[in-house]
Specification:
Elements lengths: L2 E4 L7 H11 L3 E5 H6 L4 H10 L3 E8 L7 H21 L3 E5 L10 H17 L3 E5 L10 H11 L4 E6 H5 L16 E6 L9 H8 L10 H11 L5 E3 L11 H19 L12 E8 L4 H9 L3 E6 L4 E6 L2 E6 L10 E8 L3 H10 L18 E3 L5 E5 L13 E3 L10 E10 L5 H11 L3 E2 L3 E5 L2 E9 L6 E6 L11 E7 L2 H10 L9 H10 L4 H10 L2 E4 L3 E7 L6 E10 L9 H14 L6
Parallel strand pairs: 1-2, 1-8, 2-3, 3-4, 4-5, 5-6, 6-7, 7-8, 9-12, 13-15, 17-21, 22-25
Antiparallel strand pairs: 9-13, 10-11, 10-16, 11-12, 14-15, 17-22, 18-20, 19-20, 20-21, 23-24, 24-25
Helix pairs in contact: 1-10, 3-4, 4-5, 5-6, 9-10, 10-13
Length: 602
């Protein structure tokens, strides 16, 4: 199906928006009236520009407050419409969106609305233009698509049909199954938007919180399926009002928008993509550090041993159990300190994973191989984190560890860490929804519910994505802070089967764990009926605790080194969360440590 997007969905001037839309790969565009009115380009120039970019103008919108009005208002509305029809002829647009009226002078009279819409359609037809009538969720009298269809059906004009908008239908709790009862030739246009599930005024919800399909909580794919079964053959078009998107880079947003439509087509079974290849776990996490010595000391104290050195790059391999850390001394910014730059994902079919990623517009990371280096493909996530698709220790496939020559470091005692439990990636505020869609569509991970928690300096947002078996877990966070535009360190969580024994070992080795307030443990005692000795141990060692109906979660954190810190976790039973209740405690403790100038001792 053709793919289109409304210019209102992006930031910038109309010319900048059209350039971004075409570069992303869209087929068409909806011209939002305000974008045309505010810009310097004439309708003829916009027509020429879209044609040069390979775009078609699918729709001109919106035309408001037309129907069911007194005759004196109707005359003015028809005059206004004639001006818009002339404008559309200059643009080369042949479909106009008419929203259901919100005017206080509109009458609750379907027959009158139908008669006046028929008059509008007759005039439009004389210009070779059709009218797509849309029920606004906050329309004065017409607020549902089935009501709009009754009026269109009564008007009975070939140039008058429906525009279905997923937000207006699903935010209103409408049942989209009834779409299949509408003749396909009367479905003139389909506008698509998702949204987080919120209890708020629907107009404000629509104007500020819409998002691309797959980023919210609506079943947009189900609605598309109903429209296609009804016989809809027009484009899939995005109309998204979102404060973040209208401030973000138009090019990135347009790519994200098209990715959402490609993923939506797959979910609605109206388009095909290479099948998702869901990673089974982490092969490695790569840390870049211009001065790697502090991280070497910290990893050693956590029980890791250096097991290899890359044959062609200043990269060391540290390992404990199947938890592997690459320590890269090249390319790091000394001013910012160490940071998490790449993840290796255990993938049964790396080639298929790359094909899937490319089909969903993920940029492939250029990689210059030297000599006999093992081929290793990677794509870039929205925040720039590089994702490598790996098969470790598989006899039928080249192993990335073959690029590392044995270079054992000083012998150390393991601390009981077995593998990487999860990784938490703090996103730039304008990439959060993009990242959620990326990991969901490109990697086939399942998103959890989005959480919003009180950070000491604002709102902390988090949404985890994971494989069905929990082998790969990634927590995506946005946490604001004073003076840093929301920047926060990334972190890597290591799993253990006995967190008390592990913590005692790493503390004895000199690891500085994040100090917590006694108030936390007083509250923990009130919330959970823990054994007094257990509570005393938690307090002594600085371990946090959470539980749900399936199991328990025990965790603690190291001090931060540069832009990264580590977490030690133990899961019991079927606990699948991340201790979200404790996030604000951790953030407050980290902020206090920053103010004290507390850094890792090792």
């Amino acid at each position: 199906m053709r793919k289109s997007i409304a210019t209102v969905s992006l930031s910038g001037s109309l010319s900048e928006k059209l350039t971004a839309i075409a570069a992303a790969g869209f087929d068409g565009v909806e011209i939002f009236e305000n974008d045309l009115i505010a810009g310097p380009l004439s309708p003829e120039e916009v027509r020429s520009r879209t044609a040069d970019l390979g775009l078609t103008i699918e729709l001109y919108q919106p035309f408001r407050d037309f129907e069911a009005v007194p005759e004196d208002l109707l005359a003015g509305n028809l005059r206004r419409a004639e001006h818009k029809f002339a404008l559309m002829e200059r643009l080369g647009a042949d479909l106009m969106l008419v929203c259901s009226s919100v005017s206080p002078r509109a009458a609750d009279d379907d027959a009158l609305a139908a008669a006046q819409l028929r008059r509008l359609a007759e005039r439009a037809a004389a210009h070779g233009i059709r009218i797509a009538y849309e029920a606004l969720a906050w329309g004065r009298h017409v607020e549902t698509y089935d009501h709009a269809w009754r009026i269109v059906k009564e008007a009975d004009h070939p140039a008058l049909g429906l525009c279905l908008d997923s937000f207006h239908i699903l935010s209103h709790g409408g049942d989209p199954r009834g779409i299949e009862d509408i003749p396909g030739d009367k479905l003139f246009f389909l506008q698509l938007a998702d949204a987080p599930l919120m209890a708020m005024d629907v107009l404000q919800w629509s104007r500020h919180y819409r998002c691309f399909p797959g980023q919210g909580g609506f079943d947009v794919a189900g609605l598309v399926q109903h429209a296609v079964r009804a016989g809809y053959t027009g484009p899939l078009s995005l109309e998204v009002f979102n404060d973040v998107f209208r401030q973000a880079d138009a090019g990135r947003t347009a790519v994200d928008a098209l990715r959402s439509l490609l993923s939506l087509e797959e979910a609605a079974q109206t388009g095909a993509l290479p099948a998702p290849v869901v990673p089974s776990g982490f092969a490695f996490a790569e840390l870049a550090a211009a001065d790697p010595e502090p991280l070497r000391g910290l990893l050693g104290a956590l029980g890791f041993a250096r097991t290899g050195r890359h044959t062609g790059k200043p990269v060391e391999l540290w390992q404990q159990g199947t938890a592997r850390i690459l320590l890269n001394a090249a390319g790091a910014d000394r001013r910012e300190g160490p940071g998490l730059v790449a993840l290796g994902l255990e993938t049964p079919e790396p080639g298929a994973a790359v094909r899937r990623a490319e089909s969903l517009l993920a940029p492939v990371v250029p990689r210059h191989r030297r000599g006999q280096e093992v081929p290793l493909d990677a794509v870039a996530a929205p925040d720039g984190t590089e994702l490598f698709f790996c098969r470790t220790a598989q006899r039928d496939h080249a192993d990335w560890t073959d690029d590392f020559a044995a270079a054992p470091g000083p012998p150390g005692a393991a601390a009981g860490l077995s593998h990487i439990d999860h990784v938490a990636l703090t996103q730039p505020w304008h990439h959060f929804d993009s990242a959620c869609l990326f990991y969901r569509s490109v990697l086939g991970l399942r998103p959890d519910e989005s959480l919003e928690l009180a950070d000491p300096y604002g709102l902390f947002r988090s949404r985890a994505v994971a494989g069905a078996d929990g082998g790969l877990r990634i927590a995506l966070n946005v946490a604001p802070g004073p003076g840093d535009q929301g920047a926060r360190p990334q972190h890597i969580a290591f799993a253990t089967d006995d967190i008390v024994a592990t913590v005692r070992r790493v503390r004895a080795a000199g690891v500085a764990l994040l100090p917590l307030s006694d108030n936390y443990y007083d509250d923990l005692e009130a919330r959970h009926d823990l054994d007094p000795r257990t509570l005393a141990t938690l307090r002594e060692l600085g371990i946090l605790y959470d539980r749900d109906e399936d199991g328990e979660f025990w965790h603690c954190y190291t001090a931060t080194v540069g832009r990264v810190f580590f977490e030690i976790v133990q899961r019991t039973g079927g606990y699948r969360g991340y201790g979200a209740r404790n996030a604000t405690v951790r953030l407050a403790a980290q902020r206090a440590a920053e103010q004290r100038g507390n850094t890792a001792r090792i």
